[in-house]
Design a protein that fits this description.
alpha+beta, D-amino Acid Aminotransferase, Chain A, domain 1, D-amino Acid Aminotransferase, Chain A, domain 2, 2 domains, eight-stranded antiparallel beta sheet, 17 strands, globular
Length: 309
């Protein structure tokens, strides 16, 4: 669904609520030319206890942390961004939505050094369903291993959620879609599994769960962290610093993606190889069910993860 088809009309921009169509930047904005921005993607769920943002504080902290490598300073306190976000959602009467805070170097000069460019901050929110398609959550997705590699953390900070870095994600994802797949898996420079273009990845083998660690040049996903904690509470052994080879993908019992957008999405095929029985596996289904019970507040666990509107 395009933005023009959505019932949204307001964006918070540099301390003010502005009409959606008036939220504009100059064509010589530094972040537009050099990718010098950081952002977050956060879900608000229409829970049984009312609309609630999932792990807002952790996402907000990562936004501020992502600024640090770029010497970018957000002039607003976290409490101000929280208040603005809650009001933005309330103003648009959104019960379930996706939230996009972004901070970027704005308009002043256009050398590679941002110089005196201001740090602009914007927050938008809109309805967004299943990221990889409505059927993906139940039936799983077909993915391919991309020919594009994930950059190393020694080249660009991989644990900062930087706008410019997502060109790598775009290349991998579009390559997959051109070849008839829904999504990609990206290997790191050593040839081991890193992540998806916008998701972390988990592998299930003999009832135990494996996911690449931070040393594999991945983003330290907040949904990833949540699933690790929930799976361990359910009694699963989770190896959260695994090194997974490309070949292990094809022989896995189950695979699944996690992410704020993707939530918990099964992977049913890698390249031309079916994973398990070619459908959502039992471990994935159990974790997925627990995750959705949690975020929709059908169970009381982890109340501290929720910020209510």
């Amino acid at each position: 669904m395009s933005f023009d088809e959505m019932d949204v009309d307001t964006i918070w921009m540099n301390g003010e609520f502005v009409d959606w169509d008036d939220a504009k930047v100059h064509v010589l904005t530094h972040g537009l030319h050099y990718g010098t921005g950081v952002f977050e993607g956060v879900r608000c769920y229409d829970t049984e206890n009312g609309p609630a943002i999932f792990r807002w504080e952790e996402h907000l902290q990562r936004l501020y942390d992502s600024c640090k490598p770029y010497n970018m300073e957000i002039e607003y306190e976290p409490e101000e961004l929280t208040e603005a976000t809650l009001e933005l959602i309330d103003r648009q009467d959104l019960h379930s939505c996706y939230i996009r805070p972004i901070a970027y170097y704005g308009y002043d000069s256009l050398g590679v050094s941002p110089g005196d460019c201001p740090t602009d901050v914007t927050i938008a929110a809109w309805p967004w369903g299943a990221y990889l398609g409505d059927e993906a959550l139940e039936n799983g997705v077909k993915v391919m291993v991309s020919s594009w590699r994930k950059h190393s953390s020694s080249q660009i900070p991989t644990n900062a959620k930087t706008t410019g870095l997502y060109v790598n994600s775009l290349l991998a994802g579009e390559e997959a879609r051109r070849n008839g797949f829904v999504e990609a898996i990206v290997l790191n420079k050593e040839g081991n599994v890193a992540e998806g273009p916008g998701e972390n990845i988990f592998l299930v083998r003999d009832g135990e769960i494996y996911t690449p660690g931070l040393s594999q040049s991945i983003l330290d996903g907040i949904t990833r962290d949540s699933v690790i904690e929930v799976a361990r509470e359910m009694g699963y052994t989770v190896h959260d610093d695994a090194t997974i080879s490309r070949g292990e993908l094809h022989t896995a019992d189950e695979l699944f993606f996690t992410g704020s957008a993707a939530e918990v999405t099964p992977i049913r095929q890698v390249d031309n190889v079916e994973i398990g029985n070619g459908s959502r596996g039992p471990v994935t289904e159990e974790i997925q069910s627990k995750f959705f019970d949690l975020v929709n507040r059908r169970i009381d666990d982890h109340e501290e993860w929720f910020t209510y509107i």
